[in-house]
Design brief:
Layout (H helix, E strand, L loop, with lengths): L212 E3 L7 E7 L6 E5 L8 E8 L2 E5 L5 E5 L4 E6 L8 E7 L1
Antiparallel strand pairs: 1-2, 2-8, 3-7, 4-5, 4-8, 6-7
Amino acid sequence: MTGATGPEGKEGPQGATGATGAKGETGPAGPQGPQGETGATGPEGKAGAQGVIGETGAAGAEGKQGIKGETGATGATGATGKEGAKGATGPQGEKGATGATGATGKEGAKGEKGATGEKGATGATGATGKEGAKGEKGATGATGAEGKEGKEGKEGKIGAESVTAADLAKEAVTAAKLAAEAVEATKIKKEAVTVAKLAAPSAKPGKPAEGAIVVGAASPARKVSAAIVGNGVKKEWVIEDNLETRLVQVTVQTSEAEEPTEVESGANYKVKAISGKSIEVVFTTAPAAKALLYITVVG
């Protein structure tokens, strides 16, 4: 039969340290810690020395074409691989600072004076200056002393034409005071009166309108000229000659370029003295339209 349990014994002395136990298995990986702050960019490293280019290896022998294998069964599509992590971008070197602009250079010292050049050629003579202004009139000189009376001159003679025609009044000596043949013909010089001193010949009358007449001025030779232009109808033409006579001589001329030319035959017209101041010319046939004729009357 089992006896009763005795009292608990006292604690014994501490036993010796046991040997180190075996390392336990590595536990599961803990969760990923928070991302650390970006570290400061380190200085750019110096470029390494360029390596020596290795020698080209000998070309291997060309392999023979193997036996064409049979087409294997299409394999199952593998799982899509995960995208690899992006590699870190290398640091970019900093741009060097722009150098300061250099100071402006000072102006160089003034060069020495050059040698004197040769004397230039003499310039051309300048233009003649304008005539100076007219000087003022000099003061009137004192009146000289009266000269002595000269010797009496010889008796003068009246020179030729000492009194010219211009000095004489018109009709200074009237015809009534002149005796018959006061100057004998033998004392008259040849051509004492030249043609230049005679009155000019009769002027050509102006051209009239068709069917009209223009009478020119009478000349000292008692001659009057008239111009007529026919109209193909008018035959009778009255000319106021104012010659104060019925004793007249009439000439009719045709024209070319408005200038008198050929004398018309007297058989083609008749002349009648109407009075001492006018005549009438009657043509056998009326002058043609625009025909210019000149009629001259001498009394």
